[in-house]
Amino acid sequence: MNKLLFIAFVLFFAVDAHAQDWANIKRYEDDNSKVPAPAKGEKRVVYMGDSITDFWIKSDSEFFAGKPYYNRGISGQTTGQMLVRFREDVISLKPKVVVILAGINDVAQNNGPSKLEDVFGNIASMAELARANHIKVVISSILPANAFPWRPAINPVAGIKAINDMLKAYAAKNGFTYLDYFTAMANDKSGLSPNLAKDGVHPTLEGYRIMEPMVEKAIAEALVSRN
Description:
Elements: H1 3-20, H2 29-33, E1 45-49, H3 51-54, H4 56-59, H5 61-64, E2 69-73, H6 79-89, E3 97-101, H7 104-107, H8 116-132, E4 136-140, H9 157-174, E5 177-179, H10 181-185, H11 205-224
Parallel strand pairs: 1-2, 1-3, 3-4, 4-5
Helix pairs in contact: 6-8, 8-9
Signal peptide: 1-19
Protein name: Lysophospholipase L1
Domain SGNH hydrolase-type esterase: 49-210
């Protein structure tokens, strides 16, 4: 087999594999099978998200250590992909709380252009699936970003603000806990400063250290909420 044919062969099967598991349900399939039933009184939390969640446990493993926290972030994912895998990666684990942090990759058009209302709708659908399964919900704002290194032609500021406004209003109307990372972390250009995210999108350890007490406060609020 010549070199060009071999490359084409590899690319074909890589694309075919992605098409067969668009939502990457296989990523956590084995891990999920090993998760035990919740212990009595356990306040299990699943973190559902994209690379910002995925990289969190790698950047600050101590935050997750010894806690009933399950990280189910997958780098690059859009809200549609998360919605497809929500049952396997959240509901099946029987948490008390799910923390949803999503939307930045939709704004970046990782899977092509998306209507902002559809991005919001995917997050709302995850929240409603959780509620139907007696799981408390924390809806996180999209983090600040004023540019994407991998999509330099896109200015994300207006899209992020619009989705965050929809999420905040939706959470208030439906009794979900809203976690406003944006206000706490945005600089005067509606982005993340280099100390919080070297590439302007993915938090540094310092960035995650700002997020950690905020998310734990939100989880505590969700646990005592009526919804």
